[in-house]
Specification:
Length: 500
């Protein structure tokens, strides 16, 4: 059966009417977006999503907590991250949309599920933005000239700059992300080459002869035991937080069904090379105890080489990574909030777009939330990063779970003959789908044992559930009121009105 992106013509009755409504809603959602992202943009967006602040900044603290076992944790989490991307890829092949899994949740699970999926994803990027501006402030502290400048000043400056950048059209966004990713990938490539040279030549680094003996002498693979390595899984999950960005970018990509599979399939080897390979090299070049939670491990390594300005150059690179993540967060939340508004699950203001196809309403809301990070850096600068990291992890787990559940629902719809088969399928499904969901549930359990941050985060779940339930009630109440007004004015039934 040839794929067409719609349900087969033989599907009749209520299913056909439902699909017509879905097609109309998807068409309304995509109206106004410019298909200006090129294959090279999408490739580097996917790569940049797999290489973020979690590696450049988070790896130092994770090495302190778990030692060389961090490489194994990155590998395990990376495998499941790849499976989640494949699940998302299957959904994209069914129907590319800037609403991504929010739109898929609406199609396969209903508006209520779409509401939860969208706002939990918004929680991810709203809190991640706070993490990113915190990271920028920490990186700026690397230079002694800025040691007396309050951390919140840098946080505010980063937010202001990236907010202005995000109001530009999607083509410019894609170009910026392309070069941001080039910087990140190029830097890691240089580190891998330099690190491999030192390892192969045996040349000492800061008085330490490189090799496996550094791991053995430091207590082995699990110097603190197995439990600390297991507990950092929820922190490592955050490192892969933006891999789902390619699903959002699909709606503004020319020929997305051709471009996305290639971008997604390349993620696995990137994870293996850049995450696992980098951590293994770091622990074989210097004792894992040499790395700090307050400094990028790559900055630490190059600084130990004694080459002038290398540490400064690396610090500029990690600044780029943090700004790239912040930029991506504003981009994705603007599109997701617009998708929510199209279904009546968000204020109509966030559906507004400017003449360049940028959903500025949603972006401005996100900027306002990210601004919370400024006083947070002022009040609790030392704890700001870890506090919001745990909150973001909760949203990430929920988001990825929705992606996998939507993929399961898509596969079931295909088996029932309600939608056509797609050529790009999640490998091993449905077994791998359920394994991934079990893994995500396991991460939640582990978070509960990570006292105090993770424990408090899990304790917040009932509050988040109450907030979502209240938000759903208010959204539907507002939608009902709008429906009455529309019928009084135009006589057109609400179920035939598309868009906000």
């Amino acid at each position: 059966m040839k794929y067409s992106g719609n349900r087969p013509a033989e599907t009749a009755g209520g299913d056909s009417a439902h699909q017509s409504d879905q097609d109309a809603l998807f068409a309304a959602h995509e109206a106004g977006y410019a298909k200006q992202l090129k294959p090279r943009h999408v490739q580097m967006i996917a790569m940049g999503g797999a290489i973020g602040t979690g590696l450049f900044l988070g790896a130092g603290g994770r090495l302190q907590s778990a030692g060389p076992a961090l490489a194994l944790v990155y590998l395990v989490c990376g495998v499941f991250a790849f499976l989640i991307m494949r699940a998302l890829g299957e959904l994209v092949m069914h129907r590319p949309t800037s609403g991504s899994f929010v739109s898929y949740a609406r199609e396969f699970m209903g508006e209520r599920a779409s509401f939860v999926a969208g706002w939990m994803y918004y929680l991810v990027w709203a809190t991640t933005g706070i993490v990113d501006i915190t990271a920028v402030a920490i990186y700026m502290k690397y230079w002694s000239a800025f040691s007396d400048v309050p951390q919140w000043v840098f946080a505010l400056g980063a937010l202001a700059i990236v907010s202005l950048m995000n109001m530009i059209g999607v083509k410019v966004f894609g170009e910026m992300e392309f070069w941001f990713s080039i910087v990140k990938v190029g830097t890691l490539g240089i580190f891998l080459l330099v690190g491999t040279f030192f390892l192969a030549s045996g040349h000492p680094v800061a008085g330490h002869a490189p090799g496996l003996h550094l791991i053995a002498e430091g207590g082995g693979l699990f110097p603190h035991g197995l439990l600390p390595a297991v507990l950092i899984v929820q922190g490592v999950v955050f490192a892969y937080a933006s891999i789902e960005l390619v699903g959002v970018a699909a709606g503004e990509t020319a020929d997305a069904r051709k471009v996305l599979p290639k971008a997604i399939n390349s993620v696995m080897w990137r994870i293996g090379l850049f995450y696992v390979g980098s951590v293994v090299l770091l622990t074989m070049l210097l004792p894992w105890t040499a790395y700090s939670a307050h400094e990028s491990p790559f900055v630490t390594f190059f600084s130990k080489l004694g080459v002038p300005y290398v540490g400064t150059v690396m610090n500029v690179v990690v600044l780029t990574a943090a700004l790239s993540s912040l930029n991506s967060g504003l981009y994705s939340t603007g599109r997701v909030l617009r998708s929510l508004a199209m279904g009546g699950s968000a204020p109509r203001f966030v559906a507004r777009m400017n003449s360049r196809g940028v959903p500025y309403g949603g972006i401005l809301i996100t900027v306002a939330i990210n601004a919370i990070g400024v006083p947070l850096n002022y009040i609790v600068p030392a704890q700001a990063f870890e506090i919001v990291l745990n909150v973001a992890s909760l949203g990430i787990i929920t988001t990825w779970a929705f992606i996998v559940i939507c993929q399961i629902q898509l596969r079931r719809a295909i088996c029932r003959g309600e939608v056509n088969e797609v050529p790009f399928r999640m490998p091993g499904a449905p077994v791998t789908s359920w394994l991934t969901l079990a893994f995500l549930f396991g991460v939640l359990v582990l978070m509960a044992f990570d006292y105090p941050g993770g424990t408090y985060t899990i304790a917040m779940i009932p509050l988040v559930a109450i907030a979502l339930a209240s938000g759903w009630y208010l959204a539907k109440r507002g939608s009902a009121a709008a429906s009455v007004g529309e019928r009084q004015i135009s006589g057109v039934p609400r179920d035939r009105v598309q868009g906000p």
